[in-house]
Sequence to fold (237 residues):
Amino acid sequence: MAKKKRKFPYFPESCNDTYGVLITLVTILVYEIILSYCNYGNIIYRNSVDLLLRTLVKSAGIAADIGSLGFVVLISAAIWLHKRPPLSIKIQYLPMMILESSVYAFIVGLLVSNLSKFIILAATNSGQSLVLQIGLSLGAGGYEELIFRALLFYYSAFMLIEGVHLRPELGYYIAALLSSVAFVWIHYWNMPFDLYSALFRFLAGLFFCVLYYWRGLGIATLTHVFYDFFVIYTNNF
Fold:
């Protein structure tokens, strides 16, 4: 009697949003700790999404720190409650997720490393301290994957498929385009627009939509962070 092949559960199980939400929240928390240490004097550094959130909540009369972090926690909780993934996690998956994400980030980094105009397109620049660059990279991965992939991409597709009754493939294609356009916009809402860098960011947005759809929020967040780390290494060493 032939034995059944045992399935490797890592890939389907590591996609669930319990891993994704925890990884993203920890990433944003470490970002906040690092930036509270690095931000002093007249120059304040923030991720573009975080800065926009702070501007909006401050205009509503809410303290920026409380409002921005509160919004992140509420969105994370809403995503988790809607999908209701298993609560149990396997700690041994974390190093595997880090390794997997590092491989994706390294491949993407190599693909763009010869494009000298684009290699600086990350959350950081070499004029900042190394600690600050690491902090901003964590913020980019945490905030941008949570807002643009887990929230905008997924729920745009959900509404198009469940509400408008589009075919799933078409719904996800349109949602990927919409979220990638928004991903481009957030990088220029407070700085001059540049067509070439905008095109690169649009393609990057599409890539992270595919990665989120295929491997979930945790892998997308870690890959985004590690790609920015790759750029830090390239620019500084």
